[in-house]
Amino acid sequence: MSKIPPHIVDQIMQTAIIEEVIGEFVQLKRAGSNLKGLSPFTDEKTPSFVVSPAKQIFKCFSTGTGGTVVTFLMEKEHFTYPEALRWLADKYGIEIPEARKQTKEELESISEKESLFVINDFANQYFQDNMHSRDEGKSIGLSYFVERGYTAETIEKFQLGYCIDKSDDFSKSAIKKGYKSEYLSKVGLIKVKDDRTFDFYRGRVIFPIHSISGRVLGFGGRTLKSDKKVAKYYNSPESPIYNKSEILYGLYFSKGEIIKRDECFLCEGYTDVISLYQSGIQNVVSSSGTSLTKEQVRLVKRYTQNLTILYDGDAAGIKASFRGIDIILEEGLNVKVVMFPDGEDPDSFAKKSSLDELTHMIEENKQDFISFKASVLMDGIDNDPIKKSKLIRDVLESVSLIPDQITRSVYVQEIAKKFDIEERIISNELIKVLRSKASKSNSYPGHVEEVHTSDIIKKSSEARVKVSTNDEYELDLIRFMVLFGTKEMLISDGDDTEEKSCCVIELICDEISKDDLTFNNEQYRVIYEMFEKNLQENVLLTASHLKKLENQKIVSFVSNIESSEIELSHNWIQKYNIYTKSESDNIYKSVMNSVYNFKYHKVDELLAKVKKEIQESASGDEELLSLLGEQMSYERVKKKLSDKLGRIILK
Q1: What is the pLDDT of residues 624-633, one digit of tens each?
Q2: For helices 69-77 and 552-562, angle between their N-to-C axes, nearest 10 degrees
């Protein structure tokens, strides 16, 4: 992949709006001047993920991850630096000079994971081209989608395609392009047997499966043949880039609408999603025919707390779906259920109904999970008190999974009304269920929130940048250059009463270079040298420049400084007289305080080294006298610095 020109990188960084980009992955809510949401990097119930629109940075207090919009994409989607920039460029319509075509050797040198993404991209485009430009694709694949009522716009949006019905049409083309058969097999596009390759999706229409950011993770392929011995759908196997339990089909297209509507509809298949989306209900996803998982529910939870399940009218195994409802409740979401009329599913109903009719049907038939579960389980009870009591306990088992105590209490009232039983009795039964669960796990559901909060505090503490005693002086100088580097000050030069103008970067670099000092911490040294080098070229480096670097360690570090997440020593103010809230009011005094601390520490290091050499010295008097002279010299310098800092050295 060719390098992106610096001026294009600048344009991308200036154009990208961090809250807009992250808002596609996380439901953000206003919190003062910042935005807040649940961390996309860990499972949490108390939001600890903060986005600062003013600074264009984010900070996850649960994991310690922080940085720019590019950092976020690299962490969340495992993009490389250039890939994150290209994703942003594509989103904001910024043209990047065309990269030259990769050679076969270059393709082979790409990392395995990235190779799998590249292969899926190739396959996705290949299947689409088949359907639009080859006779078989047009007459079979395209005709199928058109007959289902899909418009050209819908077909293009969902990137639907077709795999030619030949044993190795795709595999031959892919291998000829330089893609490894090993990788093609790993993502489930081909099978290899007796040194021959076979196309996995031959003769099938193709539904690409996308990540939240739009990367192709895998495919679903539907047969168009009537042979019942042939599986109706083939789906990509698990691979290093595709874990089906963590993916919801259609989320890439629907996430914005889910946030806007504050509700997500969950249905079963690919065609359900596409038909509903085309009809105008665009806050919809699918579990792709698999049992709902916690990971999938947590995906929804990033965007909304409201999940409505759409069931086929003749869906078999409705009782088996109760586990999915329990998972939703356990994750703290509000769950509703809609049963379509007999013989109908979201796909078929959407095709023959207007948007108003479809919306009306859904709204009119929404049930809370209690009513739904009761209506399913009541079948065959015939007022049998034992069966009825079992049903109530079954419903209470689900209620007990809800983490919020108030929500549980509301459901207790609903159950009491539904079954015409005293609320006190229902409440007591729920307590029994909760106690039973608590005794098994040695934890009480009522304490879930408190435990979780303390975990976040612990994680946040562990995730912060640790500052050792040896590094804290160096860190403070870097902090001043990052936060106040270009700030101008008026200072007097020695005995000269005339004041001159100087910025923070110039002052710090001058003080360090005149004594030929260096930084011990490698990261601080690299950043300092960047400031110094740019100063020599009459350029004042700023935090915004540093945040555009490809080195994401530096980007994250600078973002941490900006978000005040550097963990300074607990008695920083008392020891060094630095008041961070007002240091910009008297910036010269604050900076020089840090400079003197830095130098004092350096002299202390040199003094300790000389003392050690004196103790271990086996040389003659001349060398010993020289070392003693050095010791006295360092002690004089240390005394001067101590006087400047107002310290008292105990002899």
Answers
A1: 777 777 777 7
A2: 120
